[in-house]
Amino acid sequence: xxxxFRAFIxxxxxxxxxxxxxxxxxxxxxxxxLTEDVLMPVIGKLFGGLDFSSYFIKLGPVPANLxxxxxYEALKKAGVPxxxxxxxxxxxxxxxxxxxxxxxxxRTINRASALFEREAARLRHEQExxxxxxxxxxxxxxxxxxxxxxxxxxNA
Length: 156
Fold this sequence. Notes:
By secondary structure, this protein is mainly alpha-helical. It is built from five helices and two strands. Helices cover 71% and strands 3% of the residues. The longest helix has 46 residues, at 85-130. It is elongated, with a radius of gyration of 36 Å. The model has no long low-confidence stretch (mean pLDDT 84).
């Protein structure tokens, strides 16, 4: 079992997957920053607030020291039950951005792949056309000459 596991880990696609996960995590941080620091403030401004994450509904009692607080994180740390629809919308926008970028990436790769396939097919076709057909065997040539001579004879 250990040998099988070692062979599995040593496979190239497992290493590729590890690299993809690391790059994906870094890409996720970039998209999160884009969403939280660029897009959501603009969306929040359109909806009347500067901080979109401050949109929530209190579902339980709030401690006296946080009675009028609109700080979602502070209320959450204090254990106040909250319905954080602003944070949810932020994550939903984050997901849509990531999904769109992945869609564009896959679409570009598919188009490039199809272009490369067409080019490879064109090159194969050109190579096939450039190769002269193999010479006819001598026996076939002799048989053709005999057939031509037989056709010249009158039917007897």
